[in-house]
Amino acid sequence: GGQIKSAIRASQHLAESQEFRQQGTLAQLEFDAKQAYYTAAASQALVRVAEESVKTFERQLNDTRQMFDVGMVSNFEVLRSETELGSRKSTLVQARNGQRLAIANLCRVVGVPQDTPLTLDTKFDYVPLMQDLDSLVAYAYEHRPEILALKKGIDAGKEDVKRVRGQYKPQVAGNIQWQNVDNGGLTQPDGWTFSVGGQWDIATGGRRKYERIETKARLSGLDHQLQDLQAIVELDVKAAQIQIQDAMARVSSERGTRELAREGLRLAELRFQE
Predict the structure, then answer these.
(1) Count of other CB atoms within 10 angstroms of residue 259
(2) Contacts with 82 (C-beta within 8 Å, 6 or more apart), sequence order
(3) Cross-strand pairs, 199
(4) Which helix H or strand E contains 112, and what residues bound it?
(5) Please, what are the averages of pLDDT over each run of 10 residues along the chain (274 residues)?
(6) How far apart are CA 23 and CA 19, in angstroms?
(7) DSSP string for residues in 131-190
(8) Looking at residue 184, what is its pLDDT?
């Protein structure tokens, strides 16, 4: 009654569903590796900033002590400079610890020994996001492995419903056999044997009915899961776009801060020369 064909097609859909799940796992692994790389690169930059900050406050403490020696400032200024330097050294220790943890996590994600030396390229191209939200969501609906895997699961569920419906139809089977027995004689003659049989279950105590209801319920559950997953994917895309917009705003702000710092450095050097 078509049960075998439906079962074969359902198995094929399930196999394709597992392939999409594998793609989703690989995509997540790639994301984790990139995220760990960027975190490690940022931790290296924070260490450099902390080291430069310590050097700056060491020079400031030295200048303050010299000014104290000639009576230009009080001992309070020296104590404050020492406190500031101690705070910057503590920040440097935290930054170095964060760098070690980030490198260790990167080695774990990539799958290399923890003592593997890594050289990271911290120069990244800044590419603003130009696509609109609707096109990104539509693309995600068509290419996210989780959605594709669930759709294949739904196709398998539909074939399973067909398989259950096939139980209502009669079953027919045929058998062909060739026999050749040495010295068989009339009791076991050589030749072909053909047999055909049929079976039709008129009543099964409601088993087929409730199995059909169960398969339809599973299929309906998969449909609802697909709707929920599409909503989650849309939320993921919106959240990612918002994060990119926030990052773009921070980049613009930091560029202005950097220019302001350069101008402040230039003026400080002029004052120092005077």
Answers:
(1) 10
(2) 61
(3) 171
(4) none
(5) 87 94 94 94 93 93 92 91 94 96 94 89 73 89 93 92 85 87 74 86 80 90 93 93 88 90 91 85
(6) 6
(7) --HHHHHHHHHHH-HHHHHHHHHHHHHHHHHHHHHGGGS-EEEEEEEEE--TT-TTTS--
(8) 67
> 103-132 b/e with 16+ CB inside 10 Å = b?
bebbbebeeeeeeeeeebeeeeeeeeeeee
- Residue written as token pair 């569903």: 17
- Give the DSSP letter of residue 193: E
Distances (CA, A) of 60 to 23, 47, 65, 79, 212: 55, 20, 9, 12, 81
The C-alpha atoms of residue 119 and residue 155 are separated, in whole angstroms, by: 47
> pTM here?
0.71
d(C-alpha 51, C-alpha 184), whole Å: 99
Nearest to 239 by CA among 133, 135, 145, 163: 133
Q: Tens digit of pLDDT for each residue in 235-262?
A: 999 999 898 889 888 888 988 999 999 9
Angstrom distances, CA of residue 128 to CA of 12, 125, 135, 241, 257: 42, 10, 16, 11, 19
In a 3-state reduction of DSSP, which class is residue 250? helix
Rounded to whole angstroms, the Cα distance separating 154 from 10 reads 9
- In a 13 Å sphere around the CA of 68, the CA atoms on its Cβ side amount to 14
